[in-house]
Amino acid sequence: MTAPSRGLAIAIVGFVTLLLVGLPLERTGSVRAVVDFLAPAFATMAIFAVICIGLNVQWGYTGIFNFGVVGFFMVGAYTAAIVTMPPADGKFSTYIGGFGPMLANVPLPGAANWLPYLVGTLAAAAVSAVLALLLAWPMMRLREDYLAIALIGAAEVLRRIATEEQWLVNGSRGLAGIPRHLAGIVDGDADKFLFLALAIAMLALIYLLIDFGIRSPWGRVLRAVREDEAAAAAAGKNVNGFKLQGFVLGAAVMGAGGAFYAFQQGAISPETFSHFFGTFIFWAMLIAGGSGNMAGAIVGTYVIWGLWSVTLQLQGYDLPRFLADRVPHLRDTLVGLTIVAVLLANPRGLLPERVQVSRWLDRRVRSLRRAENEATSSAAD
Amino acid sequence: MASVADRNLVERRDDAGSGQAAELARRLGQAAPWVVLGILGVWSAVALTEQFVVGIIVGSLYALSAVGLTLIYGIARVSHFAQGDVMMLSAYLGFFVLTGSLAGAGATDVTLPVALEMLPWANERIWLFSFGYGLVLAIAIAAVVAVPILLAIDRVVYRPLLARGASTAIVAVSSLGIAIAIRGVMLLVWGPSGRRYSEGIRDTVELPGLPRIVADQFFIIATAAVLAVATYLLLYRTRLGTAMRATADNPDLARASGIDTASVRRWTWAIGGFLTAVAGCLLALQSQLSPDLGFLLLLPIFAAAILGGIGSPHGAFIGGLVVGVVGETTVGAGWIGPGYKLAVTFVVLIVVILFRPSGLFGSRS
Description:
heterodimer, A: 381 residues, mainly alpha, two-stranded antiparallel sheet, B: 365 residues, 2 domains, globular, disordered N terminus
């Protein structure tokens, strides 16, 4: 199962890369334009990969059925925005927070360029984690499908609050003018390359942290809970405690991803965070890539978001009006069909989870097998 | 083993003294939600009559769809997250057979030369309704067409997944994929902007002692009532209904007793799909047609089904009415802003699953 699947994964990633580079190159004929298109596209991809990893922690490793990803994504983005923005003027915009100037004046070397990002991201992760804690108290005991609908409901309530409460986060007008702190370091719009590097660095950091956690005995219990709660409980594990930890950790990661999304976009509004854009895409990414596998989450993000960006490129062509209007809808339909097709054809996704009990045991089994092989081969001699 | 039995004996002896009190407490616990619902219902009917009536009308739509959902869940074992989008799709199918309109390039429509509207007097208004027999026919056709669509989806997606032993969650994720795809198809075929069945003026009716009601709403509530009674009779007075309930209770036992469970499954999708489709058309008549409306319908519909006790059709019906009334009265009375109507539904859902996860009529926890 694994071998052909890996070949397919490489083929699909190659195909998406070809489209991503080829289409803008063909259309504009300039390498510069391609780079200008790809830098923000890859930054978004890295951010979405972070959120997808958050969902992977919840669903892939802990088995928590979160259909309300957009709630944590949105709360992270909004928290980061109000922490790093200047205070509201009270006339055209009203929102709480606005610590941007305060953070920029902290007496640390170059504080204005990095401290707001750091504080904003940590605050976003923390608020998102607290939200998960609050939701977990009533919800963690629910059956899977009840949990899913309850989290859809929670996400919808959060979207409503963001839309209705003018004083809190400027209501339906949203927040604009989230500062680009990296712009002070380099000339022109070259800060988008710095931001790309920063986003990839965050993805790498979160990847390593989560990977470390998942490989640890703690991660092993998480997966045991996912596989069979009763068995994990029988082994003396506090099932609800571990589920809570997986849920909160995943939410914090989603919040951090949301923070970077706000930094990159510069403006966010409740409209942005639809259930489709904020929840379903991440499910499509995770299912396509292979849940329970960090690399799968990243590959899934690359493929789905790559194709998404390519459809944006298609709009640059002089398509007939009838077709041009329908490109985004066709894309939405394909996202849905992808989920179904992957579940039917290969439910473990492009890069399936590798069964791993423990690294120590794997090494031990390998060395024993080797010893056995050597014994049999020497006996044959 | 013996020690467990001993302990049970001891416990039973302990219970004997307080047995009557415990029994009373249990009965009270079971009656409490009904008493609370009854008091709130009567109070809102008297104090907020207008909102109460609207709530019953909207609730009857939720109720029909929730009955479909609960049947599909109980017998076909699918947590059907595409329910809201199936409702919307059926509403669009009704729109299509009535008007023959499809979205063209830009904001223009392409209209087929064949449509129900072109039948003689199809749009001649019946009584005070805003529509003629054409729409009634269109709703019937849409509901009948929705059935093979759902049967095909079950055949291609849900049944293979369940046969493979996929978990509830995986089947639910696949239904989410279906929901996204259906929404995409609606956008492709009919475009993103909202539509209505008829643009005409909506006449209202005044009955003694009741607030003014839009005439169309009588049609909605009458249709919902007729279908609810028909479903009840089908489930409790026919062999098929008995087979369906037996399959819901215990599929293995049902199969062992000679019930063709595959056929029961198809009938379940047919009946559930029909109810869902009619509910979708009626909802479009009550408000409008819009591809984005479907997904948010999941909240009230799941709330209704869970409140009634998932798997219980009459529970789902009552649950739908309760969810409709609670939503309309809290907003209508000005306790919360209209933007938060879905939030009320969410609160109802949470309260039910926290304090009474088996719902009003549910036996399984």
